[in-house]
Design a protein that fits this description.
4 helices, mainly alpha
Length: 121
């Protein structure tokens, strides 16, 4: 099931990229209004953290079906995050450049997740 060069989920490019995304989300949300501490900030961070977490957990499962299920959850979290980024853009919490960069990274990782899901079938 797993590629021979991949010794751990940490070797997966998709996991590495989603970890980078978590870092970006944490940094970006630091500048949000304090009133969003329990709103968008915590929701976005939770969505972002869920992505590499589910990729790692799925990788650790023995069955391909189980792995696909966790990848689907990761993809759902990416869609949630994409929506939350859009809300931030509308509320002017994000600069247009930050928004564009985040969106393209989310789209790229989504494509990677979808591709991995289809390879597992």
């Amino acid at each position: 099931m797993h590629h021979t060069l991949v010794k751990s989920y940490k070797d997966l490019i998709i996991w590495q990229r989603s970890m980078d995304l978590v870092e970006i989300i944490y940094r970006v949300t630091e500048d949000f209004p304090a009133k969003e501490s329990f709103g968008l900030i915590s929701q976005m961070r939770r969505s972002a953290v869920s992505i590499p977490s589910n990729i790692a957990e799925g990788y650790g499962r023995q069955s391909t079906g189980s792995y696909s299920q966790f990848l689907s959850i990761a993809r759902g979290s990416l869609f949630e995050l994409e929506t939350q980024v859009e809300i931030c853009a509308r509320l002017k919490y994000l600069q247009p450049m930050e928004n564009g960069k985040l969106n393209s990274e989310i789209v790229e990782i989504s494509k990677m997740v979808s591709s991995l899901i289809s390879k597992l079938k």
